[in-house]
Design a protein that fits this description.
- This protein is of the alpha/beta class.
- It has a single domain, classed as Rossmann fold (3-Layer(aba) Sandwich).
- About 35% of the residues lie in helices and about 25% in strands.
- It is built from nine helices and ten strands.
- It has helices at about 5, 55-60, 85-95, 110-115, 125-135, 155-165, 185-200, 210-215, 240-250; strands spanning about 15-25, 30-40, 45-50, 70-75, 80, 95-100, 170-175, 205, 220-225, 225-230.
- The strands form two sheets. A six-stranded mixed sheet has the order 6-7-8-3-9-10, sandwiched between helices. Strands 2-1-4-5 form a four-stranded antiparallel sheet, with helices on one face.
- Strand 1 and strand 2 (about 30-40) form a beta hairpin.
- Helix 5 crosses helix 6 and helix 6 (about 155-165) packs parallel to helix 7.
- Bound molecules: adenosine-5'-diphosphate and magnesium ion.
Length: about 250
């Protein structure tokens, strides 16, 4: 098949996966199998599915942390394989938020937020100012000089979100960002996502086990066994997903 023929380039396309697959262990494990999807600029998308269904694999591919074994990913209709410097691509275009925060324990909150800015030519005074502004935006200015271990887990995630926003990314990719949080801190993180989406126009793709997370999104992609089962505005799982509901309840922290 001529690849160009399959590319329906929507001018609003921010990140498009075109028939991507990812196999591991010399092809014996297929984590993701022929997945196509198009994330449009400004969308808030949730990805749901059971454990082991390929959600993190998909997010890592979308975020250029990993390469597909087949297919291509396009950012603003340009193939990622044409970017010479994927580190630069990630640090300038994307922000990442993970379940376990990954803050550097020996740096203060305001220093952690500056980490992605070291890839840029910003002078240090600008970096610090920007980091402080971001901490303010996530409600964490009063903890700017705290070490991560002195922060609650909810506060750590808010610092991690400020860090993800350091270079004003077009797209925020989050892998179970509320998975380690109690329900109150989780809701605060989700309120922050809403604010970023609505007021800053940030495009958000969030993997979640929690229906309360997916309910905030305007589009939900359901995956199982490396396949997209359903993709659209409906927040209800696909018809044969009853077992998943049970699973989701068990894995979601109250
Ligand atoms: N590095 C790896 N090597 C081999 N298998 C892997 C690797 N990473 C993930 N897998 C397998 O790929 C499948 C999808 O994993 P993952 O994307 O982490 O799922 P999810 O995030 O939905 O829980 C699982 O069967 C997992 O065991
Ligand atoms: Mg995962």
């Amino acid at each position: 098949m001529n690849k160009n023929q399959t590319v329906a380039s929507n001018p609003n396309s921010l990140l498009r996966a075109e028939r991507i697959s990812r196999t591991y262990s010399d092809g014996s494990v297929t984590a993701l199998d022929d997945v196509s999807l198009d994330i449009l600029r400004g969308q808030y998308v949730a990805i749901m599915g059971p454990s082991g269904s390929g959600k993190s694999t998909l997010l890592n591919l979308l975020g250029a942390l990993d390469r597909p074994t087949a297919g291509e990913i396009y950012f603003e209709n340009q193939p990622l394989s044409s970017w010479k410097n994927l580190d630069g691509f990630r640090s300038h275009k994307l922000g990442f938020v993970f379940q376990s925060f990954y803050l550097l324990p020996t740096l203060t909150a305001v220093e952690n937020v500056q980490i992605p800015m070291f890839e840029t030519s910003l002078p240090s005074s600008e970096r610090v100012k920007r980091a402080k502004d971001l901490l303010e935006a996530v409600g964490m200015s009063h903890r700017a000089n705290h070490m991560p271990l002195k922060l609650s887990v909810g506060e750590r995630q808010r610092v991690a979100i400020a860090r993800a926003l350091a270079n004003n990314p077009a797209l925020l990719l989050a892998d179970e960002p509320t998975g380690n949080l109690d329900s109150r801190s989780g809701a605060a993180v989700l309120d922050l996502f809403d604010e970023l989406h609505q007021n800053r126009g940030v495009t958000i793709v969030v993997i979640t086990h929690g229906q309360e997370v997916a309910d905030r999104a305007e589009r939900v992609i359901w995956i199982r066994d490396g396949h997209v089962l359903q993709d659209g505005e409906s927040h209800d799982p696909p018809a044969d997903f009853d077992s998943f509901r049970v699973h989701a309840k068990r894995e979601t922290r109250a």
